[in-house]
Amino acid sequence: DARVTxxxxxxxxxxxxxxxxxxxxxxxxxxxxWYRQTMMQGLELLAYFRNxxxxxxxxxxxxxxxxxxxxxxxATLKIQPSEPRDSAVYFCASGAPTTSISLNTEAFFGQGTRxxxx
Amino acid sequence: RKEVEQDPGPFNVPEGATVAFNCTYSxxxxxxxxxxxxxxxxxxxLLMSVYSSGNEDGRFTAQLNRASQYISLxxxxxxxxxxxxxxxxxxxxxxxxxxxxxxxxxxxxxxxx
Lengths: 118, 113
Prior knowledge:
The complex is a heterodimer of chains A (118) and B (113).
Chain A: E1 5-7, E2 10-13, E3 19-24, E4 31-38, E5 42-50, E6 53-56, E7 65-71, E8 74-79, E9 88-95, E10 108-109, E11 113-117
Parallel strand pairs in A: 2-11
Antiparallel strand pairs in A: 1-3, 3-8, 4-5, 4-9, 5-6, 7-8, 9-10, 9-11
Chain B: E1 4-6, E2 11-14, E3 19-25, E4 30-38, E5 45-50, E6 55-57, E7 60-65, E8 70-75, E9 84-92, E10 100-103, E11 107-112
Parallel strand pairs in B: 2-11
Antiparallel strand pairs in B: 1-3, 3-8, 4-5, 4-9, 6-7, 7-8, 9-10, 9-11
């Protein structure tokens, strides 16, 4: 049963510490998304990649957040230094275009990393 | 103003009721449309795609009005298990925005016995 795997599932850290979240997309999917979900803002797109190249990271605070895909099986999201306002659930999702015409991407989500910064 | 807007609810309905959710999107370049479902403390999952001609999947009917930039989801004969948050999603096609999924804030449904 193919699924997106995210680690860790839960993370509690102190303000100022570095946080690294990892995501293994579904094998063969060429699109990877990072979302942040809070009660106030809902699901916000932070960054997304196609074929490992970053297409859009305009939703990400550049001074402290970075997203990379070192290879096709791993995507990372780092926060350095972390702040209490970064507390949220971070979801990774992967997808593949269903047709070459519509580029209609269904996204499959991982279970998320619940981050608490104290 | 958010690019995809939904009434957050909650919608509280009795079992067996019919309930409809609406969603509006602001970017006319939006190309593909979906409804996702998210259970409490779980990840979002695709419920159904939305096609221009409207489409039905069992008790669920999705409609799209491109002229008004409006999407709807109708649930007939509500079940307790339909209780969840329903997320409206749009994507854009074209240049670097290809396949970018934009989520609404979600509409919460509570079905009561």
